[in-house]
């Protein structure tokens, strides 16, 4: 009997221990309304037995951001308590939390001193799905380098290797110092270049379009690129409603092609993006302008055509980059100066000025290690474009200053901007192009709320995507709406993915069509 009693006691003790060992560790996020405004919080929590430690980072209406260490944290069964203390407007504030854990949610009662008591729900941030193969292309000083990364995660630890290709030669890379924190990966490639040991540091953050990498090559410089997934994640189970991708798409979602999703143009010539001897070349110039909306000086790369003369008035194409790029992304990956030099020499395009600005309208307009976090600044770029950049270009260069002499186009995030801002300002732009437009694109009915007006004002609306692009659905939706509303446009689908192979060919086609006289 004593043995049975002891066994029961042991089981009860074990049951109590199991109940207390709830899984609380991780990142939790909450948004809630308070007396002082909308608050956003991120809690980083860890548990050791009944002890809870961590920190909280919060802001009010996007301002007064603060990070504090949590105190007096306890976990009893599914109940968690801790205290947050910080200074606010000269007062020491103590906030007591008591919450009930239920899976990936904690329902909190949050008592703010003697001022208020609030109810809120914090939700656990899902661990990033980074394992698998990812492909990226970096434009470097020694040419384009292609990487296929192989990332593996076991017991929370990252291992990373790659196959790299440059100038037709491949090499195997085993990365050192791999680390994984949330949705951010870091690792190092050690190379010997011209008898020098070079340390190449990679920092990547997973976002909707892929992993945004910054590749820092010793003290020589850095490059940005977005790596897209090669096939599904290892062991990933198909979701209800998903169709097999057949290896296509890379990211963004399943690809479903319809009868309209085909090429509108024949294949481009093999040498369309290769610099030619024996022709006159245009000029690239980096300029700075004062931005009223951003509040500082900003840069733009400007192409002037061969034989540019102040005595001639030229039309202008404003050409926008993607989420991980900047004012030089088009030059690095798309060679617009080469493409236009060749087309103008062959009398296939109207001589034009191309302005390549930075579409990230914020004071620090570099993409940084987390390019996706800068997405809101892309939505503010229209103020800078219309209020500062266009007036600057029209004061510095000899240009035609009417709507039929302005075009707006871009790739990915810049494609979404071009559709949003171009179609939203048809009194400024008559020619609009979206190449592989990203999810920042407004719904088609918002882009073109008045189809009759769009028909009357648009000289060209160009929509394109690759049939291996996991974001093709964005452009398909725009095309379907335009077709339904009988708005004239070009819908072109080629054999590429979400990459410069598609984008520079789209520029090749688009630039031949814009600024042509009526009827041509």
Element layout with pairings:
Layout: H1 2-20, E1 26-34, E2 37-48, E3 51-60, E4 63-69, E5 71-76, E6 79-88, E7 91-102, E8 105-112, E9 116-124, E10 132-140, E11 143-154, E12 157-166, E13 169-174, E14 176-181, E15 184-193, E16 196-207, E17 210-217, E18 221-229, E19 283-290, E20 297-304, E21 316-320, H2 329-334, H3 336-345, E22 353-357, H4 375-378, H5 381-396, E23 406-411, H6 413-423, E24 431-435, H7 444-447, H8 451-457, E25 460-466, H9 472-484, E26 490-494, H10 500-513
Parallel strand pairs: 21-22, 21-23, 23-24, 24-25, 25-26
Antiparallel strand pairs: 1-2, 1-9, 2-3, 3-4, 3-5, 5-6, 6-7, 7-8, 8-9, 10-11, 10-18, 11-12, 12-13, 14-15, 15-16, 16-17, 17-18, 19-20, 20-22
Helix pairs in contact: 3-10
Structure characterization notes:
It is built from ten helices and 26 strands. It has 520 residues and is α+β, with helices and mostly antiparallel strands. β3 and β4 form a beta hairpin. α3 runs parallel beside α10 (500-513). It is globular, with a radius of gyration of 27 Å.
Chain-averaged pLDDT:
86
Structural shape: globular
Runs in which pLDDT lies below 50 for 5 or more consecutive residues are 1-21, 232-251
- Rg, Å, rounded: 27 Å
Which range does the strand content fall in? 35-45%
How many runs of DSSP E, i.e. beta strands?
A: 26
Q: What class would the helix/strand composition place it in? A: alpha+beta
Strand order of the largest sheet: 13-12-11-10-18-17-16-15-14
Describe the largest sheet. Answer: 9 strands, antiparallel
Q: How much helix is in the residues?
A: 10-25%
Number of helices: 10
N-C termini distance: 101 Å
């Amino acid at each position: 009997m004593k043995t049975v009693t002891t066994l029961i006691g042991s089981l009860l003790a074990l049951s109590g221990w199991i109940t207390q060992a709830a899984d609380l560790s991780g990142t939790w996020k909450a948004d809630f309304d308070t007396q002082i405004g909308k608050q956003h919080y991120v809690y980083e929590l860890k548990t050791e037995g009944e002890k809870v430690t961590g920190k909280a980072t919060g802001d009010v209406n996007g301002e007064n951001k603060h990070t504090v260490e949590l105190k007096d944290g306890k976990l009893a069964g599914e109940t968690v308590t801790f205290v947050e203390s910080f200074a606010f407007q000269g007062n020491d504030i103590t906030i007591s939390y008591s919450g009930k854990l239920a899976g990936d949610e904690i329902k909190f009662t949050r008592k703010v001193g003697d001022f208020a008591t609030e109810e809120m729900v914090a939700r656990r941030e899902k661990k990033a799905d980074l394992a698998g193969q990812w492909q990226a292309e970096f434009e470097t000083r020694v040419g384009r380098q292609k990487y296929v990364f192989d990332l593996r995660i076991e017991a929370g630890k990252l291992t990373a290797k790659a196959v790299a290709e440059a100038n037709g030669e491949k090499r195997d890379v085993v990365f050192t110092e791999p680390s994984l924190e949330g949705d951010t990966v870091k690792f190092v490639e050690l190379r010997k270049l011209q008898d020098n040991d070079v340390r190449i540091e990679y920092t990547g953050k997973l976002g909707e379009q892929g992993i945004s990498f910054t590749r820092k090559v010793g003290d020589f410089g850095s490059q940005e690129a977005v790596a897209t997934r090669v096939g599904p994640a290892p062991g990933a189970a198909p979701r209800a409603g998903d169709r097999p991708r057949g290896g296509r798409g890379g990211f963004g979602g399943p690809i479903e092609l319809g009868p309209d999703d085909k090429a509108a143009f024949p294949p481009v010539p093999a040498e369309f993006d290769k610099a030619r001897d024996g022709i006159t070349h245009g000029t690239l110039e980096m300029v700075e302008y004062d931005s009223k909306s951003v509040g500082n000086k900003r840069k733009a790369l400007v192409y002037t055509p061969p034989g540019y003369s102040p005595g001639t008035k030229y039309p202008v194409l404003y050409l926008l980059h993607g989420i991980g790029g900047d004012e030089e992304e088009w030059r690095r990956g798309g060679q617009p100066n080469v493409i236009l030099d060749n087309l103008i020499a062959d009398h296939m395009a109207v001589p034009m000025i191309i302005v390549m600005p930075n579409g990230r309208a914020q004071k620090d307009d570099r993409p940084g290690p987390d390019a996706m976090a800068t997405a809101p600044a892309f939505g503010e770029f229209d103020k800078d474009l219309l209020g500062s950049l266009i007036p600057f270009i029209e004061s510095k260069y000899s240009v035609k200053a009417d709507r039929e002499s302005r075009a707006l186009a871009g790739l990915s995030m810049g494609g979404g901007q071009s559709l949003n801002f171009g179609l939203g300002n048809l009194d400024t732009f008559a020619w609009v192009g979206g190449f592989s437009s990203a999810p920042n694109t407004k719904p088609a009915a918002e882009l073109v709320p008045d189809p009759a007006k769009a028909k009357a004002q648009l000289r060209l609306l160009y929509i394109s995507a690759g049939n291996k692009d996991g974001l093709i659905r964005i452009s398909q939706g725009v095309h379907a709406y335009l077709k339904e509303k009988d708005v004239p446009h070009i819908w072109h689908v080629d054999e590429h993915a979400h990459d410069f192979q598609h984008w520079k060919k789209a520029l090749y086609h688009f630039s031949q069509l814009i600024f042509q006289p009526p009827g041509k």
